[in-house]
Every structure is written in structure tokens, then in C-alpha cells.
Design goal:
Elements lengths: L2 H21 L4 H5 L3 H27 L8 H10 L5 H19 L6 H11 L2 H17 L1
Length: about 140
Amino acid sequence: MKVEHIIAKFDQIRENIQLIEKNLSKSFVEFEKLGIVKDGIYKRYEYSVELVIDILSLINAELKLGIPNGTSDIIDQLLKNEILDEGLADIIRGMKGFRNILVHRYGKLEDKLAYKIIVENLSDFQIVENQIMTVLRKMQE
């Protein structure tokens, strides 16, 4: 398993999250006025989700779990093979769903809902890292 590649991707995620936390306003009213900084927060969040998907894809490929038709297949394969539990799979599905909103409806994005999602779910990236790294360590034993 290319654990060093996975660790490097988690390092990038942590850097993104730190930048988001540093620039994320304490209230929606302030957030709404951030302009291009708000756009940067969205992009960093989107990129972090893409890194999570990259990590899952790498694990799927390394374990030779099959050729997926998309991210949902990767999540299902990792769930089936007990790399992810149902709770973590749900968290990642939620991340993926929000990422899709950021990517495909960016111009129509409702800032109030996006702010709420970011504030409430930013810690999910740490949950993903902790659980995936725990599984990888067990696999190396």
C-alpha cells in the first residue's frame, strides 16, 4: 500500500482545512461579504473532498477491489470489504454530494446553506483521516 501517498494527501487536506478555518467568518453575515475569499473557501473545500476521493481510489486500486464505474462504486467496494464502515461511508457520500453542488451549481449556490454545511461538517475530514489511517495501520500489521 502506498501509505506515503495517502499521508501526503491528508497533509494537503489539513492545510486546506487550516486555511478555511483561518478565513471562515464567525457568522453568516460576515461570510456573505467575503467576496473572493468566500470563493477560495469553496475551492479549498471542494479540493479537500477531491483528495478524499483520490485516497479512496488509491486504496481501491491497491487492494485490487475491481474497476469502479465512479466514486459511488469505490465507496461501495470499500464498504463491502470493511475498509469503510457505514457511518464513514455516509460522511463521504455527504462530502461528495456537497462537492457536486460546489462544482456544478457554483453560480446558483445558496451561500447560507453552504456556510452551514461547511461550519457543521469541517471536522468530518479529521474523522475520515483518523478512520482510514487506523484501517491502514491494521492492514500493515
